Amino acid sequence: MKLGQIVKDGLRAEFGNRTVKEVISAERVDIANKIKATTALAANSFGIEIEDIRIKRIDLAKDISKSVYRRMEAERNRVAKDLRSKGSEAAEKIRADADRQRVVILADAYSEAEILRGKGDAKAAEIYAKAYSLDAEFYSFYHSINAYKTSFKDKSDILLVDPKSDFFKYFNQSAQ
Fold first, then answer.
1. What is the pTM of this model?
2. HEC-encoded secondary structure of 102-152
3. Which of 60, 90, 160, 172 would disulfide-bridge 64, Cβ 3.0–4.6 Å?
4. Domain enclosing residue 37, as ranges
């Protein structure tokens, strides 16, 4: 019982001279060696030789423990906030890059679509021109029929046009 008290007194004396940071850092071996030296002298008087002392666990006073945990929690919260901030920044960069790529892709697609549309229109015009040159009268009649379909799409459509106008050219011709 007396030996336990000697070791506890040595621990208290050493820990009393140090900060919490020093106690929980790598200086624990140095602290253990100093405690061994001081307790070896007292234990020697009982005929006991102390070979080694190891610090297994450090129990701090409740108010110190709470303070340490609060600081640790604050530090973890600061690190977490920093990581969230960096994550948000990276997310913004990714979104901005994706938006930029989207705009470029859409512009390229629109450009390619316009080129293809232009080629298609040119081919259609070429075909229409060939058809027109083969039978100009039929081509004119065909366009008139399409114009009639478009103009009278709905039964309620009304069109005020002089019956002698070119629009009704094929209606006015008598069967020959």
1. 0.42
2. HHHHHHHHHHHHHHHHHHHHHHHHHHHHHHHHHCHHHHHHHHHHHHHHHHC
3. 60
4. 1-58
**Which tens digits make up the pLDDT trace of 32-55?**
788 888 888 888 887 888 888 777
Helix residue ranges, H only, the chain: 2-16, 20-24, 28-44, 62-134, 136-151, 169-172
* Three-state SS at 168: helix
Q: Which of 109, 120, 14, 119 is nearest to 58 (CA)?
A: 14
How many domains does the chain fold into? Answer: 2
Task: Look at residue 39 and tell me if it is in a domain.
Answer: yes
Tens of pLDDT, residues 133-163: 888 778 777 877 888 788 777 777 777 777 7
In a domain, 129, yes or no: no
Domain annotation covers residue 159 = yes
Distance CA 163, CA 165 (A): 6
